[in-house]
Amino acid sequence: MNIKDAAERSSLPAKTIRYYEEIGLVRPLRDANGYRAFRESDIHKLTFLGRSRALGFTIEDCRVLLSLYEDKSRASADVKELAARHLDQIGEKIAALESMRDTLTELVDACHGDHRPDCPILSSLALRQTGIVPQFSPTATK
Question: Is the pTM of this model over 0.85?
Fold first, then answer.
């Protein structure tokens, strides 16, 4: 099947499929005219890669996962270790996003949002980065 059909069947854009081929994640056959000829196994790999990427795995993680999937003598512990490490990274990202949300909530609450020029949001953004997030009290700035 051609790349258009492969894209439809795998739910991936053709550009992504070309990229995966370029970096060696998939290797479709080539017809005599040079066009890609995707097999069912290629579609399965592309779907696998799409799902892995949707879960946030890096390209390199996907490469490892794909090799583990294809290795019938693999240890599931290897797969679990990779997934657990990724889960830890997701937890770290969530914690960082929650911290950003909390800080921004404090800043928005502290800002009067009126016609005056003073603004704790801009003041905070102008502070030199120290690793310490300033705490603002909405009542202290009113």
Answer: no
